[in-house]
Amino acid sequence: MYTLKLKTRYSETDQGGIVHNSAYILYLENARIEFMQQMGVDINALENEGFLVPVISQSVKYLRPLKSLEEISVTVKIEHLTNVRFVFSYEIIHDRVKVLEGQSEHCLLNKHFKPVRLPNNIKEVFLKNYQ
Amino acid sequence: MYTLKLKTRYSETDQGGIVHNSAYILYLENARIEFMQQMGVDINALENEGFLVPVISQSVKYLRPLKSLEEISVTVKIEHLTNVRFVFSYEIIHDRVKVLEGQSEHCLLNKHFKPVRLPNNIKEVFLKNYQ
Amino acid sequence: MYTLKLKTRYSETDQGGIVHNSAYILYLENARIEFMQQMGVDINALENEGFLVPVISQSVKYLRPLKSLEEISVTVKIEHLTNVRFVFSYEIIHDRVKVLEGQSEHCLLNKHFKPVRLPNNIKEVFLKNYQ
Amino acid sequence: MYTLKLKTRYSETDQGGIVHNSAYILYLENARIEFMQQMGVDINALENEGFLVPVISQSVKYLRPLKSLEEISVTVKIEHLTNVRFVFSYEIIHDRVKVLEGQSEHCLLNKHFKPVRLPNNIKEVFLKNYQ
After folding, report:
1. How many Å apart are CA B48 and CA D42, to the nearest integer?
2. Which of B14, B17, B68 sits opposite D11 (nearest CB)?
3. Domain of residue D55, CATH code
4. What is the pLDDT of residues A41-70, one digit of tens each?
């Protein structure tokens, strides 16, 4: 589990006066990449070795609007794990209220965009950080 | 049902060499807003009257990667409708292959961020364009 | 010279109710990349050959605000050209009024991020489209 | 003068493998808004009072590329000030090397998009922070 503290950016708002729904998607990615890096799974290193770590699917519930320059906490954990796929779940909290919950599903692709079995070291570290 | 033709932008790619997952979310919004406008439901007019039309939830399956400067078709239709909520479903096609399918759920909020019953004219036009 | 017609996107607005200044930067890039492609200089092909075409500098004057879902014309032309660098100039027009003017300066970098002399075929096609 | 520490985001990269030029524009805005807030000039409060603080012009030199997940320092100071306009200048430093320098020019607009004289309290605090 990992929690990233962020501040919503002015540029992430839209004319409705609230943070645009696409910005949350980037918050989740930020938290996920930091979580992976903390576990020793560096996205830059993986890509240099020829892998991609795409989002296969994601689903998000927007529970409360956010305004610009608000402090938020994005918590990410490993929700599910197979030999090929892994699922992260997320919560965003602002001012002690949950404003978003969501999930994203991932795999590793090789250079030909084909899914590959998770390398043992990644699977082990994900298992260790399970829940 | 409405289909918007778009071209993926260079700036929407990421260092993995493919279009970033968040860009698709904007493609869906573009198609949805054009579809609504074609039905006579203008987002700018709605917001000027004091309403917001937020995304309450969305879920997306990424089936194939996209590269920069590729032509895509984003098709949106009304999937579900109640007195308060409405759901759009989407498909993105590139080169006759489906690259994404997804859904987004919406409601109307008043100035105090409270959900309101859909105005009759909106409900009627949505019903007329159902499926 | 090349003119790209675009429609401002809802997601490009900010809480001020107008299109965010960073969105214009993407409009200019879109027009520039289409212009180059029309001249036979394909950015994807160049990058596959190991070149980058970075922005070295850019300057922009914002003359009028834009709102969401407005039709605009982005005109780009080659302003200046040396053996190494090239400058594009831009105008954005909405409703017969100029809303932006700007310039961007570019070069070709090799894989080691070192500037290289412009290949002859590129220099020739740029010269032919000068002004 | 104010310095904001940031980390470049994965999503801010493009297929060239480096941070996209438009992302820097957002870094500058982030630093500027934090600087203003630190001086007591809150952008949200200003907009609630009916003002906009648009970018009138900006110019940027990109000196070095940035990669994803790199730590940067964005320094902003007040460069110039009149009764109506104010100019910020910026530097971005990564790993003790300057990667960007730039300027942005601003004014206050009222609800009719007309420039107004800077309120005394803002002019005073800007003068006090003049470097």
Report:
1. 25
2. B14
3. 3.10.129.10
4. 999 999 999 999 999 999 999 999 999 999
